[in-house]
Amino acid sequence: MKNKKFKLAAVALLSMVTLAGCSGGKDIVTMKGGKITDTQFFDELKKSSTSSETLVNMIIQKITLDDYGSKVDQKEIDKQYASYEKQNGGKKAFEALLKQNNMTANQFKDNIKQSLAFQEMLKSHIKVTDADLKETWKTYHPQVETQIMAFDSKESAEKALKKVNDGEDFAKVAKSDSQDTVTKEDGGKVKFDSTATTEPTGVTVPTEVKEAAYKLEDGKISDLITVQNQQTGADSYYIVKMVKNKQKGNDYKPYEKELKEIFEQTKMSDPTFQQEVIGKELEKANVNIKDEQYKNILTPYLPQKETKTSDSKTSDSKETKSTDSSKEETTESTK
Predict the structure, then answer these.
(1) CB atoms < 10 A from the CB of 104, how many?
(2) What is the pLDDT of residues 163-213, one digit of tens each?
(3) Whole-angstrom Cα distance, residue 239 to residue 206?
(4) What is the model's pTM?
(5) How many whole angstroms separate alpha carbon 289 and alpha carbon 298?
(6) Domain ranges of the chain
(7) For 254, which DSSP code?
(8) Within 10 A of 34 (CB to CB), how many other CB atoms are there?
């Protein structure tokens, strides 16, 4: 099946590339009676409908790494990489997965650095006020200790729920039945609060699961919690046992650090805010595109400056004439 896909892709590529007689550039393909140079290849790639988007992404990535890459801690890169390894079956399994996708470990770490640098760029444009913290406090919940099981099928989840409701040890059932590879070996233990931070790291706890957990008393087990993936539409199923819940009280001051993190996370995930930041950074970098084809690709991203239109000028002119006319009438009337 893979070979068929490769052949189809090759045919599509050959049909796209015009083997023009022009020369220039380094040879990337040679064959009987001809060759393909990198210049020819680049010229064909420029005709792609996605070439403008690719160039925009390259510009943003360049600015991000140049200005904010130094703020990224290598320890955080390694930490995230280790988390991806664990989620994908360990070192060997993850390296095999990378190889299947024509990627090395270093390239994947570069991607992590790029992502973290982008976050640093967004964060540099955020100023958190006391009003922001108080507003965030309204929906904040302190860290809780739980045990969680996750499933792809409702049938498997229902069987596991019946076991724990019938008195079987939650940790034992999690080890044997849960499909969350990161937590199952430790009996499904997860600590989380309203931020995206979890213990262990790399565990995703959906909002629906958090909200259900906060309502549980210590030692209580939830009903089946259904979570729909917004991208694929597929359902996944969760069971939560509350180990130690914690009420937040009435004073937000002890939780300022967590509240700031939540506000920043919410702000950084806002597409409108991201667009504003990108626009400001592009303007600051004074990007000058030399290729006429791509001259205006950054226009949608740059801050829009207000300009006085010809219509408004015409309107202003009419208002002025109207005022002058009124003055003349008044003068005539006075006479």
Answers:
(1) 11
(2) 999 999 999 999 999 999 889 999 999 999 988 889 988 788 999 999 999
(3) 12
(4) 0.66
(5) 9
(6) 1-48, 50-124+270-303, 141-244
(7) G
(8) 9
